[in-house]
Amino acid sequence: MTTSLDPAALDPTPSAPDSGRAPSRTGLFRAVWRWHFFASFLVVPVLLLLATTGLIYLFRFQLEPLMHADLMRVDVPEDAQAALTTKTPTTQLEAVREAFPDATIVSVTEPGAPDETTRFSITTAEGAGRDVYVDPYDGTVLGSLDPDTTLSGYAVRLHGELMAGRLGDAVIELGACWAVVMALTGYYLYWRGRTARRRQRTAGRRGARLRSRHASIGLVAGVGLLYLLVSGLPWTGVWGERVQTLATDNGTSMWSLDPGAVSDPTSSLDESLPHSHAGDVPWAMGESEVPTSDPSGHEGPVANLDTALAVADREGLRHPVTVALPSEDPDEPGVYSVIGYAFDAPSDERTVHVDRYSGQVVSTYGFDDYPLLAKVVSQGIGLHEGRSFGLWSFWGAALMCLAIIAMCVTGPLMWWRRRPRGTGRLGAPRGRMPLRSTPLLVVGLVALGVFLPLFGLSLVAVLLLDQLVLRRVPALAGWFDRSEERRVG
């Protein structure tokens, strides 16, 4: 939620008459408004990016096939079942091996619909990842894509780290932390300013309708925004790693502890797949042994990709499945890890590990085996990605992204309309937090700073900047509308 109030009209305390002096800017309302206002300079660009890229990722299954129809869509033959029987997944796998002889094939994902292609994820000899698309009916290799350079690939990388590694991840996390502050202060301003907004709207004041719409959208969007921010924290580099370390130190984890879901060490499966965070947890931390194949009584592998898929069918895994393949070295003890993603129901996620020699189930791992914390995170991610409750959560997430975009546009627009022109001032609300007279406020800020470390560090930096720089440079103090009045309390 971004700034939505007029400094003179919506302050619940009476303003001084125009006598050449600035009206009173003290009090909790103005102080909260000032923090809300300045937080928007960091938060609005970040939220606008997150909402836009999140919307693109949400519609990836609709957008990507339109943009790459030659790779992702096929014509369904009249006798489709007979064609699939002829060109089995193993036959398709061999076709990919012939087309990319120097690459390592990491995984294969089944088509999700009759007119979709089979997707093979490979790692080239140079170490680059590519997705190879195969017609499941005639076994033709249609071509390949670098998944990072697709529209949704760019969206995911911008959404997670601004395509700038650890630094970008930190910027996103910092923006998310201050967005929590934006939402909380926005609700306070919404409640305290409701009477003034109603009065302005009745009087037909300029900009009153835009402020009311901004507040009304924020009333709903704020709840969703807080949920999206909190449910996205497990992916962050500071908060997420810190909580995961605390969790593993106490014998649990935010992610699956199944270390066998990625059989090939070169794998870089999409992190939204269940278990694919297994690399974040040392195998020594897991309770279960690493699933391996047993060569006893076998001269070589007798099971193949078709066998693994047949076993998955027998075990009742949800389709479409992704199969993490064992190393191509037949002497390696890796397994076929068949992952039932259960896209719209995280509680149905399950993986079956299949022995590459005997074709028997080595072990299974599913939602019921997750640590309690991992179950909560899994369900939270499902809602975050708009997939836990089918179309309800899908369209709910889409509307939430649109509402956040609307807030990011209307907030700055309101400031632009009321900014003081030709005064050398930013037009920020003036006011200081009454910390001495409001100990609960101090406790809340400290608690939020401890819970969100980047927020806490940045808050200290902002306070030091205010005291050591703005306070001592009159030109900057004037431009930032810094109040020099006595602190309340």
Q: What do these coordinates show?
A:
This protein has helices at 28-58, 60-67, 69-72, 80-86, 89-99, 151-161, 165-192, 194-203, 208-232, 239-249, 305-315, 372-384, 391-418, 439-451, 453-470, 474-479; strands at 104-109, 118-123, 129-134, 141-145, 321-324, 335-340, 350-355, 361-366. With 489 residues, it is an alpha+beta fold. It has three domains: 28-57 and 157-234 and 394-479, no CATH class; 69-149, Nuclear Transport Factor 2, Chain: A (Roll), CATH 3.10.450; 254-370, no CATH class. An eight-stranded antiparallel β-sheet has the order 4-3-2-1-5-6-7-8. β7 and β8 form a beta hairpin. α14 (439-451) packs across α15 (453-470). The protein is elongated and about 80 Å long.
Task: Give the SSE map.
Elements: H1 28-58, H2 60-67, H3 69-72, H4 80-86, H5 89-99, E1 104-109, E2 118-123, E3 129-134, E4 141-145, H6 151-161, H7 165-192, H8 194-203, H9 208-232, H10 239-249, H11 305-315, E5 321-324, E6 335-340, E7 350-355, E8 361-366, H12 372-384, H13 391-418, H14 439-451, H15 453-470, H16 474-479
Antiparallel strand pairs: 1-2, 1-5, 2-3, 3-4, 5-6, 6-7, 7-8
Helix pairs in contact: 1-6, 1-7, 1-13, 6-7, 7-9, 8-9, 9-12, 9-13, 14-15
Rg over CA atoms, rounded to whole Å, is 28 Å
- State the helix count: 16
Largest sheet: 8 strands, antiparallel
Cα distance spanning the termini: 28 Å
**How much of the sequence is in beta strands?**
5-15%
Strand order of the largest sheet: 4-3-2-1-5-6-7-8
How would the global form be characterised?
elongated
N to C succession of SSEs: HHHHHEEEEHHHHHHEEEEHHHHH
- Unreliable stretches, pLDDT < 50, 5 or more residues? 2-26, 261-288, 485-489
Rounded average pLDDT: 81
